[in-house]
Amino acid sequence: MLEHVTAIRYVTPLREGGSMPGVVEGNDLGTYVVKFRGAGQGLKVLVAEVVVGELARRLDLPVPRMVTIELPRAIARYEADEEVQDLLNASPGTNLGVDLLPGSLGYDGSRPPAPELASRILWLDAFTANVDRTWSNPNLLTWHRQTWLIDHGAALYFHHSWPSRAPDPQRFVRQPFMADEHVLRAIATDLAGAHAALAPRITTDLVADVLDLVPDEWLETTDHLPDARSVRAAYADHLLARVETPQVWLPGGAR
Ligand SMILES: Nc1ncnc2c1ncn2[C@@H]1O[C@H](COP(=O)(O)OP(=O)(O)OP(=O)(O)O)[C@@H](O)[C@H]1O
Ligand SMILES: [Mg+2]
């Protein structure tokens, strides 16, 4: 499980984010960017954040620490902004907290990561079908001379079809990745090297460890996936099948 903290103060909204994440103080004295469960995009984006963010961490890519954060109902009562109050009222219970990187800058290409890191980041995005790392929305931060990855809520979009159809890992395997739009496309020059280094690390055990970090209550069941265990198994099947078949999704193939 992720570490669990309780929110003690809502500080400010981050209005540049589509889901209006908020800066929140935790009872552990930490400051977190909170992705709210009531933010309209639903619980699946929180699952994608944890699965892809924690996969990244296990591949030694820089990702801020993540926690689950309990939002007591009382927090909304002291909030003057109506839009924020609605969001807080819609989000009692377990939300996602991402360690705030104070003083970080949005990625603008002026301090690019080395080609090896750029290639590994693009590899992860291609593998997990993360379409949200473009110049208009880089979802990379520069902090302490390092490039950090944030915002993986758009990845693994296959799960949005689960309520209406049976999970089908082979569909995900065949889904190409449009790398041309990727913010690191020009400097990610060794995708074959990234694949050779990272794919063998995506083992059954590693994927299971990552999926265990997702709280059960975020795993929405369906007719085909009646309990949390089967939902986790479906994610694992998709990821393990895709990593075996880079010919389709890895830009330039896996030469
Ligand atoms: N851990 C963090 N530390 C510092 N700033 C952050 C952090 N996480 C997010 N931010 C800031 O908040 C903005 C919105 O966050 P994020 O991209 O995660 O939200 P979102 O609602 O999913 O956004 P969108 O879908 O519009 O990209 C980021 O672009 C960044 O400026
Ligand atoms: Mg974003």
UniProtKB/TrEMBL annotation:
Record-annotated HipA-like kinase domain positions: 13-249
Keyword Transferase: yes
Any Pfam family hit: HipA_2
Keyword terms, alphabetized: Aminotransferase, Transferase
Recorded GO MF terms: transaminase activity
Superkingdom assignment: Bacteria
Official protein name in the record: Aminotransferase class I and II
Organism taxonomic ancestry: Bacteria, Bacillati, Actinomycetota, Actinomycetes, Micrococcales
